[in-house]
Specification:
mainly alpha; single chain; 16 helices
């Protein structure tokens, strides 16, 4: 029957099915895992353009009605209004030499959001399987990264922070990416599934937690704590609280055994700079509170209390307020309000729970780091735009079919 249906399809339908069923999922696997096995951001971005952007443009021509339906989603509309406002703010920015790059960056985020919705156009479970496969790849990458880090540390004769390998070269940004997958496995561990299906998430979460400790970064643990609070509220299960507390105790013990930081020196060193940076940023925001300095204005934070100038305010909320003012901050907040309101109403859906917990994780991580808002594909996408795209896709899938049980079927 399938052969007969396939034979009766037009050439356009065959191309569309191929793009939706194979190319876009492959593009998402690349987006989620490419930084582990590509040597730099350049090929990572080129492949994103070929496997996500180009197929989305073609599918917009083939399925204009469906794409426009996706664009009418409240989440997407909230993003679109925010992005348009930030682009308009370039008018009063200090740096207006090249506006093409900000527009391109916004378009890339649009393509990511739409691609997730297009994947569930034919198969609701496809995106869940992509996440499961990518989570496994991240865990395998963590094993090899830890092995090489231990070998490198022994060869150098001292222990340093794990910087990350492949396209990852900064401990904090590395922690962002691996922490996002730790958040994914945390949800997989805590959602109601048979006991035998908890073994894999527990093993993967443990491996990723060890790697996060090796990076010496505090941000992912703060973010995971915020995500755990969301999980407690969304699931309302005492078991979640107990497992979360046990995980915190285990992580602190591992911090003591596996590293030399032990909640001293690096863990607290430099923390005092962030309140100073935030205060200086607020002082600058107060000078232009309503519309900010503009999207392309440089965010250089300097003061007598800082040893050197900071390139950004180390807080995504302050960054938005700095560039877009109070108006931009309200529009930015609307994205999260719509997203989390939808996630709360659909919290029984496991795909929604994964995406919303991931989104809250990114929001928590953004409280202490904020290099960019809408960059080209990089680590920041794991904190903001990837989970937002997953939520948009879950909402679109929910209109077509119930996907609340697909998580258990994602990995056999």
């Amino acid at each position: 029957m399938n052969c007969v249906q396939h034979a009766g399809m037009s050439k356009t339908e065959k191309i569309s099915n191929f793009l939706i069923g194979y190319v876009l999922p492959a593009g998402w696997v690349l987006t989620l895992t490419g930084m582990f096995w590509l040597h730099s951001h350049w090929p990572y971005r080129r492949l994103f353009e070929w496997l996500i952007v180009l197929p989305c443009l073609l599918l917009f021509c083939f399925h204009t009605k469906h794409v426009l339906s996706l664009m009418r989603s409240r989440i997407f509309m909230a993003f679109l209004v925010f992005a348009c406002y930030m682009l308009v703010s370039i008018i009063w920015s200090e740096d207006r030499e090249d506006i093409s790059w900000p527009i391109i960056k916004c378009m890339l985020v649009c393509m990511l959001l739409l691609s997730a919705g297009l994947i569930v156009l034919k198969n609701d479970a496809k995106l869940v399987k992509v996440l499961a496969l990518s989570g496994l790849v991240a865990t395998v990458s963590a094993v090899f990264s830890l092995g090489y880090f231990i070998h490198e540390s022994r060869a150098l004769g001292y222990v340093e922070r794990l910087p990350g390998y492949g396209a990852l070269s900064n401990p904090l940004l590395t922690a962002h990416v691996y922490g996002a997958f730790a958040c994914y496995w945390l949800v997989r561990l805590l959602v109601p599934v048979p006991a035998e299906k908890r073994i894999l998430p527990l093993c993967c979460l443990s491996i990723l937690a060890i790697l996060l400790i090796a990076t010496g970064s505090r941000t992912p643990f703060l973010a995971l704590g915020v995500a755990l609070i969301w999980l407690v509220l969304a699931t309302a299960r005492l078991r979640v609280v107990l497992i979360g507390l046990f995980a915190i105790v285990v992580l602190v013990f591992m911090q003591y055994v596996l590293t030399e930081y032990v909640l001293t020196e690096h863990v607290w060193q430099g923390f005092s700079y962030r309140p100073k940076i935030w205060l200086l940023t607020l002082q600058q925001i107060a000078e232009k509170p309503w519309f900010g300095y503009g999207y392309t204005s440089p965010t250089v934070i300097s003061g007598e209390d800082l040893p050197f100038s900071m390139a950004h305010p180390h807080n995504v909320v302050l960054l938005v307020a700095y560039q877009g003012g109070l108006v931009g901050l309200i529009l930015w907040g609307a994205i999260y309000v719509y997203s989390l309101r939808f996630a709360w109403r659909q919290r029984q859906n496991n795909l929604v729970l994964i995406a919303s917990t991931w989104l809250v994780y990114g929001l928590g991580a953004g409280l202490t780091d904020s290099p960019h808002i809408m960059p080209r594909p990089n680590e920041v996408w794991f904190l903001i735009w990837i989970p937002l795209a997953l939520l948009l896709a879950a909402g679109w899938a929910g209109k077509r079919a119930n996907v609340s049980e697909t998580l258990g079927d994602g990995v056999k």
